[in-house]
Amino acid sequence: MNLEKFQVLHRLTGLTVILFLLFFATTGMLLNHSDQLHMDKRSLDYNWLLRLYSIGPSQSPLAYTVDDAWLARIDDRLYFNERELPLRSESLLGLVRSGGVYIAALPDSLLLMTGEGEIIEKVTPVNGLPEGLQKLGKLDEELFIIATTNGFYANNAELDGWREISAPVTSWSMPEQLPAAKLRAILSLYRGAGLTLERVLLDLHSGRLLGRWKIIIVDVVALLLIISALSGVSMWYKKKKYFAGLR
Amino acid sequence: MLLLIGLTPICLATTVYQTPEDFISDVFGSEPATSAKLWIDKALQAEISSILGHELGVLRLQYWANSGRTAWILEEIGKELPITGGFVVKDRKIEQVRVLIFRETRGDEIHYPFFTDQFRGAGLGENLNLSRHIDGISGATLSVNAMVKLAKLALLFDRHVQSGGSQ
Under an 8 A CB cutoff, do B5 and A122 touch? Predict the structure, then answer.
């Protein structure tokens, strides 16, 4: 092959490979600084991308409502209105409002919350919560009640003391259907939290997003890179020989 | 005083060295401790964040007190799971540290007295650091770090309560 043919081959392979190199170099540099750029905290919420990753709840949401406030569980994530709570739970037992405080029941604890979803206090058996929590209800304006495996107990939002009571007549907190708008908003939060910019960039950089085409494309790029490198060396060698012959 | 930060459920891999209830009984003996609440205001939350590297997650904490001694039950994640520690503070210095519940698979050496006894007499120095150095344990660095953070928190809360921050 003469020098001109090597030049054409080198140019074509070089131009093709440079696109991929720019892509890998850019994504690689970004990933190197993912911590500084907080990429692991930036969530992506594009439906087509989320579908690509099959991100969505594995079961239907469970929700409780009181005074226009909603507490929902999607998988193990908890949402109060449109705010995700900073803890996980596999189950949710109810929501009541007592003394101006929202009280949520989880299997192992009670959460006392403000109307904005800030957790005032988490009450567990260690600080006096009766064991075996099963249901949550409201006894009157000030007192809420829990049903446990050992009986019924009432308390107020200040947690002044658990008082055992017998067979109360009360309305227990029951699951309800989330309104469509609330469900959409909470699902958006759920999905958004599930896919970070870092994850997507990492999958783009590694080619994992391309699925089975990844190997073929990477093989082709590698081959072009080899051809480009070898044609470059050959051109250099031929030019060296040519100029040596001129002297 | 005893402070309780939302404790996680005890699972199968959990080692309970002492239940929090027993810790309280041990600390206060026959004298009943006074229960009260500590409210976390913004200034205190900022100090907590600088110690833990994250917010506490609750606005109010329950605690108990008696005869100027304060006892706290606090939790922080070592590597992946929370470690529950009991801390007693008197005269703004650590009097006693005990690992109550350990849930991680490695690093449980922190429950031995050779480690926990190092905290005795430590106070809260400048920049919210302990006034004395705590030797680490090879292979248990994250657990050690968690316990050091919790000791700082106990001293910080005690200082706040003693200066009138409790309710």
Answer: yes
